[in-house]
User: Fold this.
Amino acid sequence: MEEIREINIMKMDVVVLTETKKKGKGSETLGNYIHVLSGVKKYEWAKRGVSIVINKEWKGSIKNWEAIDGRILKLDMIIWGYKLTIIGIYASSEDNGVTVKDEFFANLNEEIVKSGSGRQLILMGDMNGRTGRKTGDTVVGNFVEDMVNDNGERLIELCTQASLKIWNGYFNHKNIHEYTWEQHTKSLKTIIDYIMTKQDLKLKMQDVRAYRGPNCGTYHKLLVALAAVTRNDRREVTL
Assistant:
């Protein structure tokens, strides 16, 4: 997979891939990484799909993983003594009907609730939503685009109820490191991919930014977060 090559070059620890169009569920080893995937049922047309790629150095930290459906994948780890749940997400499209959106966000909320209060929680993926910017807000930061759409409003409501923070907007970067989706031929760019955590996450977020370099035949950029035990601790994980 060309994605694994780029992830290896970037020296990532944990990565969520979306719209994989894989069927079924399973795990495999790809080079220096473990790849777990959740797709549509075997008899369905290949579409949607989400997977999580974990550096083999973290293999002993993986405790369990669960393929929820073609849009949600959950993985449990223990990192530096913290119980951590990572949820990989490929959200329903902005063009989908109300029923489809309601079902997706209900399923995602259920998995968030099931993670419990005793675990650290990180959500990553393509939310197909635009959340705008806010000043002095605990959910949405001030350093991203102004536009808000229906999926974005739903995401903000979900994060507000679950006490989650959408980290993209809390670090001030140039536009080229903010926009996560860009189609040059039509001069279109936007932010629809996010990294979210519980607001009281023990791992301290050092930075979140999009990278233009990795090329995997997609309009999406690689969104990267750097987290550490404390802001002064050298033990770091790259998401």
Observations:
- The two ends are 19 Å apart (CA to CA).
- DSSP finds three helices and 15 strands in the chain.
- The CA atoms of residues 129 and 151 lie 4 Å apart.
- The longest strand covers residues 82-90.
